[in-house]
Amino acid sequence: MSAAPELGNRKYWAKPSSMPRSICPAMGISRRDPIYRKFSNSMRSLAEQFLDTSRNLDSQDPERWQKFFRKVVQSHPFVTKFQDSWPVEAYVRRHLSRTKWLHTRKATSTNSVRSNRAVAGVGGDGNANDAPRRLRDTSTQSQVTISSSASATSTAPSASIALSQSRPRARVGPAPSASPAAVPAPSGVQVNAPPPPPKTSPFKLREETVRQFLRSLNPTLEDLTQRFISAGLVNKKCLVALAGMPDWEKDKLLRDDMCLTPFQSRVVRVGLGELE
Is residue 237 part of a domain? Predict the structure, then answer.
């Protein structure tokens, strides 16, 4: 269980009139404080365990929310020094807003891939392997039909057989072997289609591009290149994607995850604004 952080001489912290943009200053602790980092990591883990991360806080099941809240207070009793334990709600509200946005973005991407497959005419359940399988089924059915026809033709009435036996037999050469008729492929289906060319990964490392972006800032933050790469900002596509995210997402990545100072974060935000 977490020990209570140093909260000055105050024994009780009133709830702010509105949720603060930055939680740490309102709590009276540093963003780099080990206890706050442990608290934030625990909140994300417990949210995955108890809550529906595809919905925002107001859409959560009340019973699951109560279980989550009790577990947080049990693990981090220092939150009771704040009126209504408001840091719990403030943090998880922002966290669920982010996870809901990620779920929506993933669902949109999945639907786009399915639409592209439908337009390409793959058909069926979207599996390209269905085409050869349907072709084999059609071919097998045709062969069965041909064999049945041949069997019916070879069966004649007994009178015809007797008449045939009474006549002299002519010498004939070997009968040509019958081969089943070729079955055309179903319309709109491409059999043995070549695999699509591999796509370039959007996360291919372009260290010099990241370094050049940080060097262009005023003042330069080139010494943070490796920190940006470690956080996944490995090329211009990643930087442009970060520029298009909501402001609170940028602050969370730059200040919470990458531990940039407020000044460094603002310098980066200015540079990202020029990429949009």
Answer: yes
| Structural domains in the chain (count) | 2
Where are the strands (E) in 142-200, listed by range?
A: none
Q: Which of 92, 116, 140 is the last residue of a domain?
A: 116
Average pLDDT, the chain: 75
**pLDDT tens-digit profile of 136-187?**
555 555 454 444 444 444 444 443 434 344 454 545 555 555 455 555 555 5
Of 116, 136, 156, the last residue of a domain is: 116
Confidence of residue 25 (pLDDT cuts 50, 70, 90): confident
Cβ-based neighbours of 39, under 8 Å, separated by 6 or more? 2, 76, 79, 87, 91
Residue 112 CA: distances (Å) to CA of 105, 197, 244: 11, 19, 20
Is the pTM higher than 0.70? no
Residue 194 lies in a domain: no
How many Cβ atoms sit within 10 Å of the Cβ of residue 86?
19
Exposed/middle/buried for residue 108 (C-beta within 10 Å: 0-12, 13-18, 19+): exposed
List, in sequence order, every residue forming a beta bridge with 82; answer none if it has no partner: 13
pLDDT digits (tens, 9 = 90+) for 177-221: 545 555 555 555 555 666 665 555 677 888 999 999 999 999 999
Is residue 108 one of the residues assigned to a domain?
yes
Contact between residue 95 and residue 103 where contact means Cβ atoms under 8 Å apart:
no
Range of the domain at 266: 207-275
Instruction: In whole angstroms, give the CA distance from residue 167 to residue 67.
Output: 98
Indicate whether 61 belongs to any domain.
yes
- The pLDDT score that the predictor gives to residue 137 is 54
Residue 13 phi/psi, 5-degree rounding, is -115, 120
Direct distance between the N- and C-terminal alpha carbons of the chain, in angstroms, rounded to an integer: 44
